[in-house]
Amino acid sequence: MLLKIGCICLLVFYFTTQSSAYFVTVDAHAEECFFDKVEEGTKMGLTFEIAEGGFLDINVRIMGPNGELIHEGVGETHGKYTFTANTPGVYTYCFSNKMSTLTPKVVMFNMAIGEARSQAKADGETTNKLEDMIRELSSSLTGVKQEQEYMAVRDRIHRSINESTNSRVVLWSFFEALILVAMTAGQVYYLKRFFEVRRVV
């Protein structure tokens, strides 16, 4: 029994799709591109989230090997795109911050690359039900990992927004307190002068 569990664990690690999480800073008026060389029939996915900078938006472009546009998004804060490579070659993912004049953006993204169809069933080899279930399990585990990274970035963004809002509220309250003290002192001074008895000599 222990040997079967060990074999299943090894197969899960063997069939796990390649997925990498990266953080990259895209400067103002700049564009950062990343490349993956894949075979025909490979399932690919891009998940991204803007972690810091400006209005938390960026332009995204995915291009195929022949320069054909697969996806283009303008001013997006996050996204998840999955597609199958129709032609073998180098696929390009680009994050553009050319619309920003001053603010750099920090982008967290994952590029998930599955197995090509030819690798999954090479030379007419039939896969049994256990291997199919292991592939499905490994794909689900990768999805869970990506979702956890996505949620961690979202948590960091919301915490930053909350802390910024809290500090502004504290500063505004301090400013209001100073205004109230100044108004009170001014009213006391005005009333004191109003009720003063002036002697005429």
Structural write-up:
With 201 residues, the chain is α+β, with helices and mostly antiparallel strands. The chain contains 3 helices and 8 strands. The protein has a 4-stranded antiparallel β-sheet with strand order 1-8-3-6, covered by helices on one side. It has a 4-stranded antiparallel β-sheet with strand order 2-7-4-5, with no helix packed on it. The longest helix is centred in the C-terminal third of the chain and has 66 residues, at 129-194. It is elongated and about 110 Å long.
Strand segment count: 8
Shape: elongated
Mean residue pLDDT: 81
Q: How much helicity do the residues have? A: 40-55%
Determine the structural class based on helices, strands and strand pairing: alpha+beta
Figure out the total of helices. Answer: 3
Secondary-structure element string: HEEEEEEEEHH
The end-to-end span amounts to 114 Å
**Alpha-carbon Rg, integer:** 29 Å
As a percent range, the share of strand residues is 25-35%
Main sheet attributes: strand count, strand direction, barrel closure: 4 strands, antiparallel
**Spatial ordering of strands, largest sheet:** 1-8-3-6
Sequence stretches where pLDDT stays below 50 over 5 or more residues: 5-18
Keywords:
201 residues, four-stranded antiparallel β-sheet, alpha+beta
Summarize the structure.
This protein has 201 residues and is an alpha+beta fold. It has 3 helices and 8 strands.
Q: What's the arrangement of secondary structure elements?
A:
Blueprint (H helix, E strand, L loop, with lengths): L1 H14 L2 E9 L4 E8 L4 E10 L5 E6 L5 E8 L1 E7 L4 E8 L8 E9 L3 H4 L8 H66 L7
Antiparallel strand pairs: 1-8, 2-7, 3-6, 3-8, 4-5, 4-7
